Amino acid sequence: MEFLDTVLAAHRAYLLGWNIGEPGDPDLLTYRSDVPHAPLNGVLRVTGRTPQDALTEARRRLDGVPRVWWVGPGSESGTADGLASLGAVDVARLPIMTVAIGDAADAPTPAGLHISESTDLDTFVPAYARVSGIPAEGVAAAIDREKAFSGDGTVLRLAGRLDDRIVGTAVAWLSHGLLTLYFVGTQPEQRRRGIGAAMTRAALDLAGERGVRTAALTSTPVGEPVYRRLGFRTVGTFRLLTF
């Protein structure tokens, strides 16, 4: 559980880097980016509060933005069921996956794909926004939040380009001695070419060069087979809920 606690702490540190709201309490940890995309606003952990009390306070802090509740190994047992009794509905169940970077499988880079770090947020953010579901009207806010990102760690952004166009993205978050991956995605018209696997492998290599030995992520159902082929294994599950 100690290792999983570290993975959860790194995940919380990344999402708190988006926060422009009031600081969350240890017993009700919230973050608010004001980007109209539910995963970028929400509740990270609930401990020592009744579901009704947590819901009332979270609604006050997060009023006006779409949001999710991350209920996983770091929340008290029964939290998800308690929220469901108040009307919460499941959005997804996401496996928490990890791999030792030295044990990860290789992934070939598709012909013509060039992967490098990107600092041009005006082109990088729209690329991952299209894949992750951030609406067009939220892209400007996402760019602003990325430019002001202030988390407990280091964020590196990788862009995969074909003919100078970004077709794949990955955000490498280095915190708590781990690499945690976010916004790994491929433009719809370029899928099934191995770009997502190549982006993930490039992030693993980059982290390994910096002395990081373990990688973690939360996977969507679409991405899970890709990560399993690279050697990632499930160590826990997040249950995402919303009202």
* SS elements, strand count: 10
> Quick one: overall form?
globular
What about the largest sheet?
A: 10 strands, mixed
Number of contiguous helices: 7
What does this molecule look like?
Helix 4 packs across helix 5 (139-147). This protein has seven helices and ten strands. The chain is globular. By secondary structure, the protein is an alpha+beta fold. It has helices at residues 2-16, 51-62, 79-85, 121-132, 139-147, 195-209, 224-230; strands at residues 28-32, 41-46, 68-71, 89-100, 114-117, 154-162, 165-175, 178-186, 214-218, 233-242. The longest helix is centred in the N-terminal third of the chain and has 15 residues, at 2-16. Strand 8 (178-186), helix 6 and strand 9 form a beta-alpha-beta unit.
Give a short synopsis of this structure.
The protein has 243 residues and is of the alpha+beta class. The chain is built from seven helices and ten strands.
Reconstruct the topology from this structure.
Elements: H1 2-16, E1 28-32, E2 41-46, H2 51-62, E3 68-71, H3 79-85, E4 89-100, E5 114-117, H4 121-132, H5 139-147, E6 154-162, E7 165-175, E8 178-186, H6 195-209, E9 214-218, H7 224-230, E10 233-242
Parallel strand pairs: 2-3, 8-9
Antiparallel strand pairs: 1-2, 3-10, 4-9, 4-10, 5-6, 6-7, 7-8
Helix pairs in contact: 4-5
Key traits:
single chain; 243 residues; alpha+beta; 32% helix; 31% strand
